[in-house]
Design a protein that fits this description.
The chain is of the alpha/beta class. The chain is built from 7 helices and 9 strands; from the N terminus they run E-E-E-H-E-E-H-E-H-H-H-E-H-E-H-E. It is globular. The structure holds adenosine-5'-triphosphate.
Length: 195
């Protein structure tokens, strides 16, 4: 077991929510718009405080982990990721202690290696979304949380990212994504968990 959320409460948004994602599997977290999917993912990495419940990473309550360590072990890619000023390479290596394989991270996110030197803040929304995935991957996470990973991507690009997501799961990552796109839920995920 990699990630387990039980009885999560966040204000009036989440009431007793639960989620389990094991190593090697892709789980699609689904619910109507506004039901709290993003809030749940943000609570996992402690960007939103919990009013109740527990998030465990390999059995350890994440509340006991240093947030920096937690966010390295659990990569979170927001629906509208924020690019820091500087190049894509700067964004990929920000706050990283060890050298990273930027080319591999860019490739897994569907980006050409030449993107490393581009100004990150001037990329298109879809390109920024892919840089955000690459940024999470340079931290070699055990769990990857993707909030609406295909928003801003055209169908061929979304399919390419989907193939990479399947490869990452096959390599042992535990992946949870949210999506309103049924093609993503049925095509990328091993199973669907309704919130
Ligand atoms: N920072 C915030 N402050 C106040 N309310 C918020 C905040 N973020 C989200 N909410 C509210 O929490 C509820 C759940 O939002 P959330 O984004 O988690 O839902 P979601 O299921 O991911 O929705 P969608 O599918 O539309 O992205 C919504 O009513 C939203 O307005």
């Amino acid at each position: 077991m990699a990630l387990e959320c039980a009885e999560l409460v966040v204000g009036d948004v989440l009431r007793g929510a639960a989620l389990r994602v094991q190593r090697g599997e892709v789980v699609a977290l689904t619910a109507p718009s506004g039901a709290g999917k993003s809030t749940l993912l943000r609570a996992v990495v402690r960007l939103v405080p919990l009013d109740g419940g527990v998030v465990r990473l390999d059995g350890t309550d994440v509340a006991t982990l240093d947030p920096r360590v937690l966010r390295r072990r659990v990569g979170f890619v927001a629906q509208r990721p924020v690019m820091l000023p500087g190049t894509v390479a700067d964004n990929l290596t920000y706050a990283l202690d060890e050298p990273a394989d930027l080319a591999a991270a860019l490739d897994a996110a569907g980006l050409d290696a030449s993107f490393a030197d581009r100004d990150a803040t001037r990329l298109s929304g879809g390109e920024q979304a892919r840089v955000a995935i690459a940024r999470a991957l340079t931290r070699k996470p055990e769990v990857l949380l993707l909030d609406e990973p295909t928003s801003g991507l055209d169908a061929p690009l979304a399919e390419a990212i989907g193939r990479h997501v399947r490869e990452l799961a096959a390599a042992g990552l535990a992946i949870c994504l949210t999506s309103h796109d049924r093609a993503v839920v049925t095509g990328w995920a091993d199973r669907e968990q309704r919130l």
